[in-house]
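notes to self, project folder thing:

trying the whole complex as one job this time. last attempt i did each chain seperately and stitching them together was a nightmare. two parts in total, labels are on each line so i dont mix them up again. if this works i'll redo the older ones the same way
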Amino acid sequence: MPTPNSLKRNIPSHPPTGIASRKGLAPSKIVVTGDKGVKVSRSVTVQKPARPLYAFWRNLENLPQVIKHPVTITVRSPIESHWSVSAPGDRSVEWDALIINDEPDRLIAWRSREASEIANAGTVRFEPAPGDEGTEVTVTLEYNPPGGKAGAALAKLSGEEAGQQVGEMLRRFKALMEAGEIPTTEGQSVGAPQRKNQQ
Amino acid sequence: MKAVCWMGKKQMEVQTVDDPRILNPRDCIVRITSTAICGSDLHLYDGYIPTMMKGDILGHEFMGEVVEIGSAVKKIKVGDRVVVPFTISCGGCHHCSRQEWSCCDNTNPNGALVEALYGYGGAALYGYSHMMGGYAGGQAQYARVPFADVGPIKIEIDIPDEKVLFLSDVFPTGYMAAENCNIERGRSTVAVWGCGPVGQFAIRSAFLLGAAKVIAIDNEPERLHMAEEAGAIGLNDEDDDMLDRLKTLTGGRGPDAAIDAVGMEAHGSTYDNVKQTLKLENDRPFALRQAMRAVRKGGTLSVPGVYSGFVDKIPFGAAFSKGVTMKMGQTHTQRYLRPLLDMIEAGQIDPSFVVTHRVPLTRAPEAYATFAEKKDGCIKVVLDPSC
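result (full assembly):
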């Protein structure tokens, strides 16, 4: 894996409006263009040092393990990846993402390339919990749903949905890191009428 | 295999279902040799626990033989005889590392559901609603046991099932309830509301922990008798002058600690019956109210009885004015397995005293009814899955 500095040099020189990130200063601010953006932030504390947690996230192809919604992530270069998320009606929503900030064991920030169907950007931050009791992991996600009035309403609705999804992702991530597996009951013994539905 | 399924309020059914299989690397499968009905199962039977689904397999007090292990299981082997604690805990989170096993962060696949209700979710439980994880329970011939290296305790001496089965829940639950009372050896008086199995174990545990006096409160003669056999003073809770009698028995000071081993379905208050039936109140906290008023100044209120939601007319002012300490919650079962097994092995207690009924698993539905209606002196039912 390239060093972070070489990564930084690879960052395209045309960041979209509003992206600012400075190492060692305040948390990077990522703003999705337009005023209808949805922003969610969720946090979880994991009883592990930042290093293995960061390492899991930095290999983006690990993420479908913890994202409950079906998603395919293809890493194309140290900073480029392609995301395909299944959507209602056998569709999928796809975009290319760029890692725009990468501070090992501390922070990863990304945004979608311009002209993506759903403009989005986010950060995951790893900070020591008080008393050295593990690591606080905070994910902030911003995105612009397709425009128009309906879009704004959808944004409001899906804002809650996105919050739940990020929350669920962090819950699964924490379980995988601390317990070594994600709890499940799928496929367990069950009586009718559920049994009938399962078969 | 055969399993006891919840099919609605007061409708239990023994069904033939698929045998469980390993779903996660830390799972094991247990062939069940003994399983029990818990008083808390009656809250499911009576339909007071939300997020149950028809077909859910019940039961959280079981033991048996390990017949299969997942790829990541290291301490438990096929052939081991184990008792399974009712709390499913991961062993790797903040709470597990502090022995707060019932607060485990990582075992409930439906954590979001319980967070919506309680703010944060704790350990998943076997056979106790989807909110509590939706895991199939152990009133069955086999069960899938997640985190096999964290929960189950091996039984390595030759001892009948009935002497160790209750390590799964009611003995640790009663013991933790007594431990929460801050008993001072040779000095403390503990009053216990509810003489079902948890109350019985709380009474005996209070004595084991050195309580000078234990007062047992119930309205079933058999249960009071069983409490008196342990050395407790029995009080019928239908007596109107309960508070006065407790004062008389404690030199006017009141009990140092009060245990509510009844929980959300206490009898005695029409107000609560009506409100609970109309779903204006989840729980009937009659015992809790009495205990809160009866406990002495600076005393301790310990609540092992299950509550699920909102309660009305709690005399919080009484608790505040008297500076009462309140301790409660699901049992940190894993914390107690080894020390309580040692006590059983040393002959300090024989938990099988509580068993009144032994029936085949196939007769579980009628056993539920007998237990719920407290018929035939029923205090504890053990089900035999082999027949």
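what i see at first glance: Strands of chain A lie at 38-46, 71-75, 80-87, 91-103, 107-112, 119-128, 135-144.
need to look closer tmrw
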